[in-house]
């Protein structure tokens, strides 16, 4: 798959075929390719934890239990703005209403919304999950580097016939997850990721978010 096709076709997949395994050798190969992502002074600030089988189920159980109890948790960093404003809140609403609308879920239907949100913690059925951490003393530049690493992994997965869904939904439950994956205290959870082969014909996998044209965000100062 060429780079442009990989980028333009990438989307968050939310329904994976649990019966199709992803081998350790393939995972290591993809991570090795992703590690060619650029990082300032080549410090390569990423740590990766691969989970499957029983450990994956333990993480799912811990997160679902907290979620169903009403415990929303608290992430260690602010992924989104503290105060929403336009145009960002409008883009967020478009995405949320579009996804729930496709599934026929009314956002006022708390049970249906809750049922869908639980799928995050079930890795959307993916046979393998990833958790990415960064040392707490790293600065914003290393977080920028991390984004390039994550994008490289997602594109590499597409080149190998797999798909992904990067998930900040796990971050509020970092204090349940990091002990299970044996991450040291000096590491902070950046996000999780589900990876596998998508379920063919799945309705939710047809959902595509819109994008601005380059003219909408590009400036040529004179």
TrEMBL record:
InterPro entries: Nitroreductase (IPR029479), Nitroreductase-like (IPR000415)
Alphabetically ordered keywords of this record: Flavoprotein, FMN, Oxidoreductase
Domain Nitroreductase: 7-197
Assigned protein family: Belongs to the nitroreductase family.
Signal peptide location: none
Gene Ontology MF terms in the entry: oxidoreductase activity
Cofactor: FMN
Transmembrane regions: none
Classification of source organism: Bacteria, Pseudomonadati, Pseudomonadota, Gammaproteobacteria, Cellvibrionales
Keyword Cell membrane applies: no
Organism: Luminiphilus syltensis NOR5-1B
Protein name as it appears in the record: Nitroreductase
Keyword rRNA processing: no
């Amino acid at each position: 798959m060429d780079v442009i096709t990989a980028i333009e076709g990438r989307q968050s997949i939310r329904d994976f075929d649990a019966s199709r395994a992803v081998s350790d050798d393939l995972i290591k190969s993809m991570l090795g390719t992703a590690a060619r992502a650029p990082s300032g002074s080549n410090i390569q600030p990423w740590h990766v934890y691969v989970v499957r089988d029983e450990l994956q189920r333990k993480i799912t159980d811990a997160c679902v239990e907290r979620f169903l109890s009403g415990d929303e948790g608290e992430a260690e960093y602010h992924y989104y703005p503290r105060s929403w404003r336009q145009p960002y809140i409008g883009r967020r609403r478009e995405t949320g209403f579009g996804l729930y609308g496709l599934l026929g879920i009314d956002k006022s239907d708390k049970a249906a919304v809750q049922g869908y949100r639980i799928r995050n913690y079930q890795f959307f059925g993916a046979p393998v999950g990833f958790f990415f951490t960064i040392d707490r003393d790293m600065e914003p530049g290393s977080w920028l580097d991390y984004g390039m690493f994550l994008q490289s992994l997602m594109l590499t997965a597409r080149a190998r016939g797999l798909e992904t869904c990067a998930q900040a939904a796990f971050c509020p439950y970092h204090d349940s997850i990091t002990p299970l994956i044996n991450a040291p205290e000096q590491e902070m959870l950046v996000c999780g990721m589900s990876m596998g082969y998508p379920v063919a014909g799945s309705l939710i996998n047809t959902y595509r978010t819109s994008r601005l044209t380059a003219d909408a965000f590009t400036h040529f100062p004179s």
